[in-house]
Design brief:
Strand 5 and strand 6 form a beta hairpin. It is built from two helices and nine strands. The chain is α+β, with helices and mostly antiparallel strands and 137 residues long. The strands form two sheets. A five-stranded antiparallel sheet has the order 2-9-8-5-6, with no helix packed on it.
């Protein structure tokens, strides 16, 4: 029985010493830098008049692009109805499109490989909402 207690104690001590070293081994880089995730600011152009505008500092839509896994994540913090997300390249050609109902889906994931050195436009448009953001990898 003592062996079980000693083994459990050794496991707890080992985890207590290993975990802080693992968490601080990133030499003070932020989570976004380690995962190469960048935030894309989406500006509201048109907002539904029937929906009360939030007074919080959180934006209506938050967008992030992870270049490691080529994933565009769009979070709908407030529902704005059915919208279409268009990702446009510099020539304004659509390279990615996704339609969702934000009353049911609060997150949209789009797999895209965006090349460095180009400017991409994220255009979110619906019946009562329109927003736009720009991304340069």
């Amino acid at each position: 029985m003592k062996k079980i207690y000693l083994l459990a104690l050794a496991f707890v001590v080992a985890m207590a010493t290993i975990t802080p070293v693992y968490l601080t081994a990133s030499n003070n880089t932020s989570r976004e830098e380690r995962l190469s995730t960048k935030e894309i600011v989406i500006r509201d152009i048109k907002y539904p008049p029937s929906t009360p505008r939030p007074r919080s500092a959180a934006p209506v839509i938050s967008a992030y692009y992870s270049s490691d896994i080529s994933l565009l994540e769009i979070y709908f913090n407030n529902p704005v109805g059915t919208v279409t997300i268009n990702v446009l390249d510099e020539m304004q050609q659509c390279i990615g499109r996704y339609t969702c109902n934000t009353n049911n889906e609060t997150v949209a994931f789009i797999n895209l490989s965006l090349s460095p050195g180009y400017t991409y436009t994220i255009h979110i448009v619906g019946d009562e909402y329109e927003g736009i953001g720009y991304y340069i990898p």
